[in-house]
What we know:
The chain is elongated. It contains 4 helices and no strands. The chain has helices spanning 11-23, 34-44, 46-52, 55-70.
Amino acid sequence: MPKRPKRPRDPNQLAKLILDIATGEAENVKPTAPKESKQKGEAKGGTGRARRLTADQRREIAQTAARARWKK
């Protein structure tokens, strides 16, 4: 995802930026939709990790988690 410049906090600089966008001197970069960025991250997250683990590895992780939950 390309980095977009932050909007200035100063009202005068913000007004100039808006004017530049309106006249075409600066480009208005819109943020990506939340759904798209969620789908990109999903493949790298737990779903991909679960596919990569064997049944024995998943069982061991689950047992460790259960021990941690019940340890008091």
